[in-house]
Amino acid sequence: MPEQLSQESEAKRVKLEDYHETAHSIPVANRDINGYQLPGHQSNSFHTKMTSSQVDNEPSTFIKELEDMDNEATSKSEEIQIQNWSRPELPKFDPKKDDIIFQQLDAEEISHVNGHSSARFFGVTDAGNTVLCNVTGFDHYFYVGMPKALKESDLPGFTNYLKDEYVGVNTIEISFKESIWGYNNNTKLPFLKIIMSNSRLISRVRTGFENGSIQYNDAFPPNGSITFDNIQYLLRMMVDTKVSGMCWIKLQASKYTLVPPSQQVSTCQLELSVDYRDLVSLPIEGEFSKIAPLRILSFDIECAGRKGIFPEPEHDPVIQIANVVSRTGESTPFVRNVFTVNSCAPIVGSQIFSFEKEEELLRKWRDFIIKVDPDVIIGYNIANFDFPYLINRAATLKVQDFPFFSRVKTSKQEIKDSTFSSKAYGTRENKVVNIDGRMQLDLLQFIQREYKLRSYTLNSVSSHFLGEQKEDVQHSIITDLQNGDAETRRRLAVYCLKDAYLPLRLAEKLMCLVNYTEMARVTGVPFSFLLSRGQQIKVISQLFRKCLELDIVIPNMKSDSVNEEYEGATVIDPVRGYYDVPVATLDFASLYPSIMMAHNLCYTTLLNKPTIDRLGLVKDKDYILTPNGDFFVKEDLRKGILPTILQELLAARKKAKYDLKTETDPFKKQVLNGRQLALKISANSVYGFTGATIGKLPCLAISSSVTAFGREMIEATKQAVQERYTIKNGYDHDAQVIYGDTDSVMVKFGENDLRKCMKLGEEAAAFVSTIFKNPIKLEFEKVYFPYLLINKKRYAGLYWTNPDKYDKMDTKGIETVRRDNCRLVQNVITKVLEYMLELRDVEGAENFVKQTIADLLQDRVDLSQLVITKALSRQDYAGKQAHVELAERMRKRDAGSAPTLGDRVAYVIIKTSSTKNYEKSEDPLYVLEHSLPIDTNYYLENQLAKPLTRIFEPILGERRAKALLSGSHTRTVFVAAPKTGGLMRFAKKTNTCKNCKSPLTKSNCKSPNGNAALCNNCMDKAGSLYGEALSLMNSLETKFSKLWTECQRCQGSLHQEVLCSNNDCPIFYMRTKAKKDIIHQAEELERWNDMVW
Amino acid sequence: MTMDQEVRRREVVRSSDSNKALLYTLNKNNRNYDRQYASIYTARANKLKPRLIEKCSEKWKGEKINGIPVSHTEKVLNISSNKATWCVGTVFCDLKYKPNILKDVSESMYGGPVVKKVDGTYADRESDQLMLEDESGRIALDGELIDKILLVTGCIVGVLGMEINPGVFTVVDIVYPEPGLQKPRLLSNHRIALVSGLGINGDNLDLSRLELLKEFLTGELLENQAQESSIAKLIIAGNSIKVGDLNKIHQDKKNKFKATYASNYNATAVSQLDNFIHDVIQTIPVDILPGAEDPAEIALPQQPLHKAFFNSSRQFVGNRLNTKTNPQWWDLAGTEILGTSGENIDDIFKYVVPNDYHVDEDGCENSRIKIIESTIRWQHILPTAPDTLWCYPYQDDDPFVLESTPHVYFVGNQARFESKDIILDNGFKVKLLSLPRFDQTGEVVILDLNDLSTNLVSFSV
């Protein structure tokens, strides 16, 4: 039964891994409880516990048990205890007989000694062995249109001329190609293919052609010729060999050569060379949709900074590096360790490597990286912080051998600045560290790219995606912990390990690796481009691939960065209001791609008047005129290249979605889902590419025509629906289109019944689809009911796809993610929408708003709700800004805890004599400690008023909406009295009677020192008034206890003080407030005890 | 209170037993909420660890595994795997349904999913995890023994076993702290009456059972004349008032946007209680403890019910009417009694009942005597404070550790009357009493201070 046995041990192993995790004490508290595996509790344990007698010690069974345990343990200990780092050994193989198949992960261009460009791929085989594959023999090239004056017989002479003028020119060939730009009756023309030996020399020759300095027998136009196919070497090679990013490559037996050990440059297990013509790229389907067992390292460093200064590598040491390594598809990491300077108490389930000197720590960490050999390195903000810090720190300490942890032995890791601007992501300045052969995925960058969030700190990101808060240690405390003992350093190490583990969990949850892998495969670009480059490169890669098949060349356009504006998508003016009847939404499926396909819009089909005349084309038979006034030939004359690409993408997406339905393996499901997503995004980005005016190949004729068609279609849909669904035509109501935007139209059929409305929606979608050209299709997707239409791009509603239960509440453009709002706004709006839409209780919503405003004015809103955060980025702000001013003031108070550059400054607006908002900002903790009054008016008027009015106006009308903000609930105001500063220094505190508020003196109350709660006249109300005081005390005591015990649980220790300074946590300020309040209330209660009865 | 004062007070308590009655009285005018709860756990460990280590070394000194003697590991994190060892630390239960304010807050903010739970329990069989912790860190506990015995957050124990799976310590034997000293008991011919959960509800005017109780205590029930005559004291152990849920939210009619807090105050109920006491103290003295349902501070130790509530019996306070803290120590004619109003036991109970358990299946719900016994064994009457039971943030002190062992230990407000005599390892005898709720059973317990026998008197109309 060996099979069964192995299965069993496998099962055990999984469980043990889980133990690792629980015992870790990394994710002890507050984590998803489903992650736990527990020792098999007996089901009747409750009963046993309640009835069995206390423990009786019976040594006979006990000794035996221990012995059993001991035996069991020794058999297992090896596999558990030793965290095996090394790669699996390379199996024996024969280059003459065995093929090599590997997944290509990273590619780079290298310059060889003989001056020829070549490239190399780094990859991993299915067995987990690493491969470096040199691709030789591929020369870079570009095209120039062959002038009529140049004859084929001139070619040798011209070649010699060019060779003399420019270094690196190899050969010139004549190819018959066609430019992508404009319809040219499908005629291929001769082009000169200039082949260069080294990619670096290519641009000089290209420029020579473009500025007209290359001349031969006056054949070339004197003011320059257009050159074609400008694309970087690596991508050119990948396009020509049909290798896409992250695809599998096969090297056939005897077609490759092994690099002799003496000449190997890398730490890869297998190093070989192959001619580019022998490279076989395996199609990404079936077996080769898989992903190789990649090793993913996630790490985090801690630095011991000085008080008040953000750590600088020139001064502040790196004291800990935590590492977690896992394999793709496995949920538990197989390596967990922490490198520490100075001793550190052990952490269960993790290894600790302690070093006396920081230099040694750095060196050993480098050795660790080489040994564990990760394929992917992830982390949070590693690109801009951790890597540069480590490298700079090593340079400061003169650890010369540190920056060599890539797969290429001689390649030194260096920091480069890269700026990358993109319309979609804005301008970002990033640091880039070259780590040859290892992919890098900075989760911060990934999340910034893919998600719009209020805040991108690891705290808030993990609470957003993983639903958990994390303990946060302020950098000023880090140094104290480091300077403590092995226990405090252990505490730090646990924290560090947690921060290393979180990115891994985030990556898994967000499936970044899988989704980006599929994106690389679909678009054909190397993985690393996805984070470091913009959107365009993905379309370019696809375009070049398609063009190669069709013998089309792409002109090298100078981007003139003319900011030509063209009319965007249309919006049917919203009929604002609150709709208490179902509103059906008709959507155009993949609108822009379908328009391009339906009307054959492409560079290759673009016509102009002269061409039309020259070729004698007939409108509507041979070509169309778009609503924008551009001409494109019809499909039967020439099928556009963009429509072809789009068709393929959408067909592939259809297939992926189909496969997704039938696939059962969860990991493969993820892959397929990632693929269909990538395909969808790719299809949609094609339109954007044609409209990107500072792009590679902008063509406003295409993009403007697309939007023009779109506008026309939205209008046409409106017309069609409103004409057909009328009482006149036998329907119960006249349908009304209340809003339309880009690719959807909202129709109020007037029908109250959801089912009927859905039926009408489906029918209408089918009907309207018939008036449009294939493949444009209108789909009925959902019904909003009720629906609150506030304005253009601002609406909310319950989203129904099945008539029995709504799917969710859907909101667009309503204050939920805007970061300069405090949380209160977001929460109030969410709650109000819940009341209105889910409960259909407008009055409830009004009352809720009134209560909230009353709470705000009476100082009962938790401070964390009022905190506004802004990043302190540069110090030279032109205008005075609240958060910058505050940071400055905080620095004056205590340089140690003040926010530093790069921190997010959290502040609240308080009441001061000043009227300028930037002078009214204050640190929330300082506010709590000094009981400073909040400027509640600011929050009411500058934060809440606008969004609330916007929502309520369509429902209540202007007058009642206004009343919300100024009704009777706003009359009672409570302002915290500051305990320090100003007039308070001169004020004398006098107790007043709790009931009648008359000042208490020794004579009018029953207390020896005048510290009573009531005056003599109010004594008969004592019971109920004391009862009231008690109820407040009890709510505070409960709150106080709940809050501080929660923090203990979150930090995972009862015996250690809570240090956490995570001010993103919703209970962070509450904690301090509760403490403050309870002290005050305890004093109040004492006044009752001081009374003589 | 300052640390000095605190220390001094503790010493006073130790040297003179009369001050034990003030053990749970919080310092007037000087409460301090600046310290975190870690301080209590540290103080608790400091008090109990020496008592444990002594006992552990004694019990396990001869044990050998495979010929190798078991050793003592001082810190939890220094436990090395596959080595039989013993260690002392604080138990921590990670339970799914513990009160979680973070979740509550986040949910009300972000509308997260609501966790389904059975009321009155924290436990979930599937996911709960037991751990042992000290200042160095935590290790998970498992083993058959752990499934069998009762352990809750905050008790300090010694465990013998081995770390087989990394981070998981398999326990084979367990030791509780050495019991605190017990004074020799003096015999007395007095008897005292113990009642809990009067549950006077301002809305319910049917006070006939209460009337009967009063008549019984004051000797007006003739047939009991002989019996009642020697009852020396009535102890009311909490929950004398029961405010209906409707009454709980105190609302100000004038200003509906004012803050509202749950209140246990009800004027009618309070005056009914006042009248009851006023009548009883004419005959016998009364000690009254607050309970969770009474108008008193919720955090333990609960401070005495306030004079403001006793309009008619106010003049007797400190004399025939003693308002006491909860918990409370008494020395009644040489018998040391420790009592609580039952919150401690109720809270521990929530650690044990699994979420999917139907409590009435086999009557376990009704027997709490095992838990009451456990708290004596653990030498700590409030282990789950402050984790799930709200408590004052003592600084460098934990007065709930038993520094001495009482003769009688009663717990109020339980489902039914139970009594058990236990003998601790060093021979000390403790009488455990689980007092029923009067409003549900009509039962009062009479304790004879001579032989510590009990008599259950039941009233019904």
From TrEMBL, chain A:
Enzyme class: transferase
Annotated DNA-directed DNA polymerase family B multifunctional domain residues: 525-955
Superkingdom of origin: Eukaryota
Entry EC number(s): 2.7.7.7
Classification via Pfam families: DNA_pol_B, DNA_pol_B_exo1, zf-C4pol
Keyword Metal-binding listed: yes
CDD domains reported in the protein's UniProt record: DNA_polB_delta_exo, POLBc_delta
Family in the record: Belongs to the DNA polymerase type-B family.
Protein name: DNA polymerase
From TrEMBL, chain B:
Protein name per Swiss-Prot or TrEMBL: DNA-directed DNA polymerase
A molecular function (GO) term: DNA-directed DNA polymerase activity
Source organism of the structure: Komagataella phaffii (strain GS115 / ATCC 20864)
Matching InterPro entries: DNA_pol_a/d/e_bsu, DNA_pol_D_N, DNA_pol_delta/II_ssu, PolD2_C
EC number: 2.7.7.7
Residue span(s) of domain DNA polymerase alpha/delta/epsilon subunit B: 192-417
GO cellular component, one term: cytosol
UniProt KW Transferase keyword: yes
Gene Ontology BP terms: DNA repair; DNA replication, removal of RNA primer; lagging strand elongation; RNA-templated DNA biosynthetic process
Major location (coarse): nucleus
Domain DNA polymerase delta subunit OB-fold: 36-174
UniProt keywords, alphabetically: DNA replication, DNA-directed DNA polymerase, Nucleotidyltransferase, Nucleus, Transferase
Top-rank taxon, per record: Eukaryota
Coiled-coil annotated residue ranges, if any: none
Enzyme class: transferase
The reaction(s) this protein catalyses: DNA(n) + a 2'-deoxyribonucleoside 5'-triphosphate = DNA(n+1) + diphosphate
Pfam families for this protein: DNA_pol_D_N (PF18018), DNA_pol_E_B (PF04042)
Cell compartments where the protein resides: Nucleus
